User: Fold this.
Amino acid sequence: SDEWEELDLRPHHVDIMAKLDELSADLDRLYADYRFGEIAQRLYEFLWSEFCDKFLEAVKGDMRETATVEERAATLITFDGVMSRFLQLLHPYMPHITEELSEVMGYVEEGEFLMQHLLPEEGLLADADPEDVAGEKAIATAIYETAGRLRNLKAEYHVGSRRDVTFIVKGAVEWLEENSDTLAILTGAKEVLIDPDYIAPKGTPVSITDVGEVYLPLEGLIDVEAEKVRLTREITKVEQELAKSESKLASPTFVDRAPAEVVAQERERLADWKTKLGQLREMLAALA
Assistant:
């Protein structure tokens, strides 16, 4: 619509609106097949997994004092557009709370009821170019997935709660520069810098992502020698557990007499131990 075209929308804005439109279309099909349980699950997943876990986290910067009027407007209008329609979709399952929220949030006029409002037939992005929408969704997906990997990288080196972390991206995709602030917010980092000429010091953790090679300089964040000791001890513990599991599975008595599900579970544990051991050894080698 003209209203959306006038806004400075970013990938996460377009992504959440597109997913709301997809949800609305899917619910029409599910209602036709009387799949009410699946409808409830889809509503829950959209609200928590897409709207809260991703979108609301991505737009935190737009609510800060440093945000521009245009940035704040884009987020607030997107929020209202998505939430007002979501409450309509949720209304058959939670009529009282959706009526209350719609009134408090100004989505219905005083004296009106949400149940009196028909859900618009056209989606929020009905007039948008499908290729443009697909492109913005792809960027949002890459940012969200990269943020998850970088949070894991922080956690592996016990700096998950640190907000003074700086990530450095080498070989960055073209669109990252204008979205690096969102990535920084989602990863809980001080900043995400783009440096095509960056030469990482030996031992610098790195994650290969959809936005490029992302490095986590550890200088000033951890005691490298202490981390080496910790990893060595952890490797010893995992090696012991791995040996126990291999010994158990090498025993004909266990494999032949134990229930099949117990043997399968032990094989899964063995695979998990091997994966963890490999990860720990890589981390130690990176610090060597």
Observations:
- The chain has a mean pLDDT of 92.
